[in-house]
Amino acid sequence: MRTALLLLLLLAVAALPGSVWPQRSIDAARTADYIAQHPTAGPILDRLGFFEVYASPWFAAIYLLLLVSLLGCVLPRSVQHWKAMRARPPRAPRRLERLSAHASEEVDATPEQVLEAARDALRRRRMRVHSHDDSSVSSEGGYARETGNLVFHIGLVVLIVGFAYGHLFGWKGDVIVPVGQTFANTLTRYDTFSPGPLVDTEELDPFTIRVDRLDARFEENVQAKGQLGMPRDFTAHVTTTASPGAPEKSGTIKVNHPLEMGKGTAFLLGNGYAPTVTVKDAKGTVLYREATPFLAQDNNYKSVGAIKVPGDGSSTRQLGFSGFFLPTATVDEATGPTSIFPDAKNPVLVLTLFEGDLFPEGRPQSVYTLDTAKLTQVKDAKGEPLRIWLEPGQTLQLPGGRGSITFDRVDRFAGLSIRDDPGKWVTLGASLASLLGLVGSVVINRRRVFVRVTPAIDAGRTVVTVGGLAKDDDASMPEVVTEVLAQITQKAGR
Amino acid sequence: MTNETLAGYSNLALYSAMGVLTLAMIAYAVFLARLVPHRERLRDEGAERVEVREAVHVGAGAPAAGGGASARPAADGAGLPAEPLAARKAAGVAGSLTWLGTGLLIASVALRGLSVDRAPLGNMFEFACAATAFALAAYLVWGTRRDLRWLGLFILVPIVLILGAAMTVWYAPAAELLPSLKSYWLAIHVTVATLSVGLFTLGAVLSLLYLWQEHRATNEITGGFMSAFPAGKTLERMAYGVHIIAFPLWTFTLIAGAIWARQAWGSYWNWDPKEVWTFVIWVIYAAYLHARATSGWSRQAANWIAIAGFLAIIANYAIVNVYFVGQHSYSGL
Ligand code: HEM
Asked: Among A100, A470, B325, B326, which is least packed, fewest CB within 10 Å?
């Protein structure tokens, strides 16, 4: 108990740093920023595991020790409890007056009648009853307290097993799906995918999800205290199939209303804009026409993105556009082009143009930014960097016979996260069992009640004494004793 | 989507509740101020008699206080003559004002809910109102079963402070919720969370009073208004009684929160700062229950752990909600 207590306190303290410092598993970018901003403390904290607290060896050490201590405590106790539940209640003490709760009364009945009444009253309280001699009754009840306590503790172990199982066999993947496009559940289709160590990534359920429409609604009425423009509702209307070619079903995915898809559940965790842009060369051949997702940077969806036009790959003069999509654009004196509302009320693409080798040495790069190492910025006629400002439907001829760019229209995209956690039902069941056990272990009281009879001075009358022994901190013992005595005297007559 | 008129009435009810509860707090202070000198006089006069009675007790080998089917608990000032009229009057006024203030507070919470057409538990301001309403309701309901007038001042001081902070620092205008909060789990998870926070508040007050009473006992301090309070042992048992109701409710909060997190964010446990703190609070109170059951640990140490738990609740509320970066973005600030 003492070890468990110390480990519990230690666990509480050890869990806290994870809420203070950014955690790599939750927000890798913020973690990297933090380390960069704290060049002395950052790397030290990093080595000590403060950015991965819940995967750090010291955190694991605490909960594993706690688990061992728990098992070491609960298993012997279960055996003991099993025996105790089948054992007889102990012999009644000689002098019940010595027990902290006791009461006695003289009744007009024989000792046998009184004992019979006592057994009856105690059984009705669902106590286990036994007479060791013919002048007393022993009883014990409330075993469910200990049962509850054991269920609670064992439940915690099973819960952790479920948690671990989910980590080993579960997976999650994120993908951005512009409206109109279809997602097929295969590894290559994901933008990011993190499988548990024992997941067979070849065996994903082959379902598909097409995003038909994405509704977004933002606060337009309440002006006070930053409420304007707060998100109010996001709903993705989708068409799904269990496998390619299977019958189509329509459904919706909303925040708080994920869509269950066989082995995998689709959550709507993000959204944004995917402007459709057409880039043509000087002859009018279409080089690029795609809905290109831009990632929102703030609450008003000022979004960054890049349009990479590799052409047929033969030219070393590949074009790359990078910049912002602004759903409700204005030009701020101080900060330049920005968005003042998250809905697409005045959509604008603000881009700059680069030329050269888009993919130097095939290095991996983000789809939302250009790797400008082998690129040069294209200038306008005045020698200033070219600034492109396009509204839907507008086309701009690029300088130097580089062709044209057209902003056709803008759609939204759905940021879907698809996850499978096969351990969740184990964890849920175990936690509910734990909760029930806990309730049982605090509301039920383990009690022993003894009844002893002695012949009174008047013949045919009996003095009955009831004594109670509470195992736990149980303030209601005196009441129980009085009640039992009243039931006995009522039954046996005074 | 929001009904401004009802929201206005809700604020009006809240301001009235605040005023009435402040008056109730003063009346409970008057009650103690009137009662304590009287009790002290009684004790001085009766000291001799009490000593004689105790000697008899010990001689008979009687068990400790609280035992014996017919023995009345030694605490609660049982056996002392009636209180002075002035104290009783003050307590009567305080009691009525507390009922009225609680009624107004509940009305304010209900009106807020009607004005925004959802459970009024969407931001810190709304949690604070609901949690204090629960704490007051628990105090009043418990008070119908035993004499808790001595506790009035100590329960109203934190409540008036919390409501004051809610109205000034945490106030958020009535508005619709963010998508992630639009779920029936809001009503389930947050209602139970506020209920258990209300009970933990009550428990922390009782634990503190117990520790104070013990401090007086070890340093042999007599007199002062704490002499009008139940004995340490009774207070400790009351604190435990409240905590063992609050703890399973908090456990439920944790489970319901995890289920909701799975619906809203895709995974039932994300180690989000708010989740971490909810878990830490749970572990601290589990440690309290263990400490209380561990034979080598004193009751005082156990109660200090309970108070640490309550400090964590306050930190979780006032600091984590506002300053820590996480997915629980609902402070409304
Ligand atoms: C994961 C860590 C643990 C948690 C969260 C936990 C939680 C709890 C809680 C909440 C109670 C109170 C139930 C009641 O009041 O009846 C309790 C009781 C108890 N725990 Fe644990 N426990 C943990 C680990 C352990 C370990 C490792 C041991 C053994 C060394 C242990 C032994 C006990 C015992 C003996 C009781 C019964 C106390 C009594 O009868 O009142 N616990 N535990």
From this structure: B325
Assigned CATH for A89-142+445-492: 3.30.310.80
Tokens of A116: 């019979």
Sign of CA dihedral A247, A248, A250, A253: positive
Interface test with B, best of A256, A450, A479 (most B CBs within 10 A): A256
Q: Which atom of ligand 1 is nearest to the CA of A1?
A: 30
Cβ contacts of A163 on chain B, cutoff 8 Å: 269
| pLDDT tens string A146-203 | 999 999 999 999 999 999 999 899 999 999 999 999 999 988 889 889 888 898 888 8
User: pTM of the entire structure?
Assistant: 0.84
C-alpha distances in Å from residue B8, one per residue of B66, B161, B173, B252 = 51, 22, 10, 34
Give start-end residues of each CATH 3.30.310.80 domain in chain A.
Answer: 89-142+445-492
Q: Do A258 and B263 touch (CB under 8 A)?
A: yes
Q: Do A219 and B176 touch (CB under 8 A)?
A: yes
List all residues 6 or more positions away from A326 whose beta carbon is below 8 Å from its beta carbon.
A302, A303, A337, A338, A339, A346, A347, A348, A349, A350
Alpha-carbon distance B286 to nearest alpha carbon in chain A (angstroms): 8
ipTM of the complex: 0.84
- pLDDT tens-place string over residues B214-251: 998 888 887 777 777 888 888 999 999 999 999 999 99
Compute, in angstroms, the gap from residue B279 CA to the centroid of ligand 1.
16
Closest approach atom of ligand 1 to CA A73: 29
Atom index in ligand 1 nearest the CA of residue B292 equals 41
Interior/surface letters A445-483, b for 16+ CB within 10 angstroms, e for the rest: bbbbbbbbbeeeeeeebbbbbbbbbbeeebeebbebbbb
Ramachandran bin of A262, using left for φ above 0, alpha for ψ from -120 to 50, beta for the remaining angles: left
Q: Are A427 and A159 in contact (CB under 8 A)?
A: yes
* HSE toward the beta carbon, residue B212, CA cutoff 13 A: 16
Write b or e for each residue in B202-222: b if 16 or more Cβ atoms lie within 10 A of its Cβ, otherwise e: bbbbbbbbbbbbbebeeeeee
